[in-house]
Structure formats: structure tokens, C-alpha cells
Amino acid sequence: MFQKRIVVCLDVRDGKTTKGIRFKGNVDIGDPVVMAEEYYNQGVDELVFYDITASAERRGIMIDVVRRVAEKIFIPFCVGGGIATVDDMSAVILAGAEKVSINSAAVRTPSIITGGARRYGSQCIVLGMDAKVDSSMPSGYGIVIDGGRVKTGKDMLEWAKEAESLGAGEIVLNSIDADGTRDGYEITATRLVSESVGIPVVASGGAGIPDHLVDVLTRGKADAALVASMVHYGDFSVGEIKKVLSESNVPVRLD
Amino acid sequence: MITVVDYEAGNLKSVETALYHLNAEFTISSDPEIIVKSDKVIFPGVGEAKHAMGVLRSRGLDKAIITFASTGKPLFGICLGAQILQDYSEERDTQLLGIIPGDVKLFPSDMDLKVPQIGWNTVSHDSSLLFEGIPQESSFYFVHSYYLSTKLSGGSDSPWIAGRSKYGITFASAVHRDNIWATQFHPEKSGPKGLKLLDNFIRRID
Fold first, then answer.
1. What is the count of structural domains for chain A?
2. What is the ipTM of this complex?
3. pLDDT per position as a tens digit, B154-180
4. Fewer beta carbons below 10 Å: N end or C end of chain B?
5. Quick one: CA torsion of A4, A10, A15, A21, rounded to 10 degrees?
């Protein structure tokens, strides 16, 4: 049976995870490679690393992280943050990542999606979209960039369809309104995007309890759900989330 | 010696890392002579069939793989590497190597499912050596829009099927006959079960 994916997202700055992340057992871990292994052992289906390193000259550190992660975990993982050219994508993929995620750069230069897809195949190219409620937009949601500060004037659904036609293989839809609330995913926006495109949609932003994942993977029609703080602070393990999903008849990988 | 065929396939690096992890002795090569003389060959792949066939032909690797397959020594195709072993692909009307009978087909568009299939799916397998120690309905990681056919041209089930999975339709997720092995999924990205399967190919199959 085909299964819904649980994706854990890690923010990385200068080669370290950004928060004093605490697994059950209260051990502070700052090494993204050690954290990746922990989630791998918990049974996560996929990982995303977002590089939020500010200075360009320190970005090589991330490539080293990618290389070390690839040696330790044997599931797919995606790298995003600061990727603006096809050469940036190459560096990450050649270091061992399955996928690259592009967000603001794709809004500014949509042809980067096509360039990446031609070189590595659509399955490698993930479009990250930050959506925000905007009643002036046809779908009711607009696309924002640069961490939600800048409105692009793009409608969420128009951009999702355009990205698919340009060659994106997957969409990570992050709701700026829900992000950080831990009150649940943006179900309506997720369902709208998932029903408008033929590529998988990963829901992001707002997860607080396992039932939120049940909701977005059923009513929200998401193909995968991204979690961060709800697992980073030890509130839930990936295994506990999957147990709830399975009991709610959402097919997930338990072995 | 195990040789991994290097034709710039997208998952070469992942296969290499997994083999290192398993302490396998292997070499990576695009030299047809080395491939033909190997004890075992792993033929990886991610990408597009026509382009891949072009690269293989330009380096004489198409003939090398066919020759190696005829020696009776174990050959393992992964994902696109599995598909290329069949006769023909609907992906840009491409003639393939003709080692595994049957055609590679595009998932139907009317399935109400996303294409490509990206993610984990369960496999019902035939308990052959490749799956030794791997329970039925274990999950493996798939990324593909085209699938290995389970039917021969006459309409009967192919005797080559070693594993079946369902994504709208039932398709061959693993194939085996004599010395030829192939999986549509990526064992190198399928966690501990995938590593076990690769280990089976390296250590259990002669």
C-alpha cells in the first residue's frame, strides 16, 4: 500500500541546528548529523535541511553537513535555503541530497525550476511556497517571500500550477499564518493546492499534535506532512505520530 | 569484484555510500571491459530512459551489460537501471537492452493518484534470495512515473516477477530470473530493509 510520508525539518546555521533541540532524555543536540540519525532511527520517511547561514562565504559548511548526513542515513533527504542557481543545486545533489528546495529564488527567476529539472529530473526539484491569506487574490491566498515579509502579487494556485508546468516535482506548501502556532495546518490552502496540481504536496506549518497530521493528510489531501518543533522538543517521537496516524487509518510506514 | 556501472546516473552517489556502509568491496566504472570481467554488476539509475540509453551507447556500455548478463553472473538493476533491462519504454519511444522481456509503461493518467509515485510503498515478494530476512509487505522508497510491466505480450503473467506493489494498478516492483535481478524501488534509500536487500545481493547471491 502506498503510504503518506512524515518529513522532519531541521534549520541549520553555520553547520549547527539553530535551536537547543531536546529529544526525550533531555540531551541537547546541536549536530544536524546526529539529529538526522536519531530521526532515522525513529522511522522518519524523509528529512529536510534548511540552511539559514547568513554569510555566503560560510555556505560551504552546509555542503559538508550534506555529505556527512548522506553517509549516515539511508532515506531520501532534501536541502533548501539560499539556493539561487542550478550550480547551487548541483553542489547539494553531488554531495548526496536527493532533492533541492527552492523558494524565493524561484519567484524571482522561475526559469531556475526548469533548469534544475532538465539537469536532474523533476523528482529532484521541490518548490517551497510561503502562502498567506490575502482576500485580494483569486484563491484567497497570496505568495510571500523572504520569510513572509515581501508580498509577490502572485496567487497561490496560479503559482502552484505554473511551478508544476515549469518542471517542479513536488510542492512544500508552508502557511505563514499557521507557522509557529502549533494550532494545526492550514487545511483549506493545502487541499486547494493538492487538488489543483498532479505532483505531490507536502503540508508545512502549524503542527502541534499528531491529530493535526491526521487532519491535513485526510481532509487536507496532503501527500506528506512536515513537522519541526513538535518532534524537536521531545513532545512526540516520529514513532508516536505514526502510531496515531495508523490508528486513524492513515497508511504510514511502520516497519 | 562488484562493479557499479557509472553512466552519470543520479543515484550513483547514494548507491556508493550504501555499499561503503555495508563494507562491500566494489569499484565504480564506465569501462566496458571492466564491467564484462566483473563478478557482479550493479546497474543504478534515476532519470530519463532515452537520455540514459544515449549515454550507455556512446560509451559501449549497452553491449557490455548485455554481454555481462549472458555470462550468468549476477546483475542487479535499480529503478531506471531496472527499466533499461526491459525491451522497450514508452518514455520517449525508447528501445532498451532486451534482457528482461516486457515493456516499460507510463502510469495511467486516470488513476486519481499523483504521478510520479514519490514515496514509500509495500512490496509482496516471492521470498527469493534478494528478499531473505525481509518480511512480506515491507516498505521501500519509490520515485517513478513509468513501471515495469507484469504481462508478457501474449497477456500472460511474466514468470520474472519477484515482487508486486500497487499504485492504482499492480506493477512489478521486483524482477528475477536466473542471474538477473531488478527492483523498481531504491534499496539504497529504503532504510534498514533496503540495506538488507543490498546486502543480500552482495553476500547471498552468486
1. 1
2. 0.92
3. 777 788 999 999 999 999 999 999 999
4. C
5. -130
